[in-house]
Design a protein that fits this description.
Glutaredoxin, 5-stranded mixed beta sheet, two-stranded antiparallel sheet
Length: 180
């Protein structure tokens, strides 16, 4: 499937600490899906929210640790998408000391909706968020999706993190490279 064409509102140059992890002083920069994916092979993983337990303790750090192994399998970039704004994503990445994986703030959820992964999480008070998934995207085409089981709009989940791990993606990349 082709990835949706959207413009992400990013922040660059925010280096003046404001407090609580937020920094200011930079500028808004529009970044398109073409800027991120055209002519590249990337891994995108998405999660319900910055600063949430599974996302902070497992998923984001796992991808940071496995970044070099993914690069060795031909992946150019690894992106983390969340339906959060750019200030939150940047502060979270700074707090987690993430330098290899890059954040994509999908504040309006347009990319997530276009990927078919926008869900409502009223039980947690989150509102619209992303279901947890990962994808291999080759030149703007999602060639393989790894979607956690139980996708729903009722908050009836135990926040699964099994299918969208970097290890699962590495196994897939090994399998397709072995077939060549």
């Amino acid at each position: 499937m082709k990835v949706p064409r959207v413009i992400f509102k990013t922040r660059v140059g925010d280096i003046r600490p404001l407090g609580g992890g937020c920094a200011i002083g930079g500028d808004w920069k529009n970044v398109s899906t073409d800027d991120l994916f055209k002519g590249k092979k990337v891994v995108v993983f998405s999660l319900p929210g910055a600063y949430t337990p599974t996302c902070s303790s497992q998923q984001l750090p796992d991808y940071e640790k496995k970044f070099d192994a993914l690069k060795a399998k031909g992946i150019d970039r690894v992106y983390c998408v969340s339906v959060n704004d750019a200030f939150v994503m940047n502060a979270w990445f700074r707090a987690q000391e993430i330098t290899k994986v890059k954040p994509i703030a999908d504040g309006e959820g347009k990319f997530t909706e276009g990927m078919g992964m926008l869900v409502n999480k009223p039980g947690q008070g989150f509102g619209l968020r992303s279901w947890r998934y990962a994808a291999v995207i080759d030149n703007g085409e999602a060639t393989k999706m790894f979607i956690e089981a139980g996708k729903n709009d009722e908050s009836d989940d135990d926040d699964p993190y099994i299918e969208s791990t970097p290890e699962t993606i590495l196994e897939y990349l090994k399998k397709i490279s072995d077939k060549k």
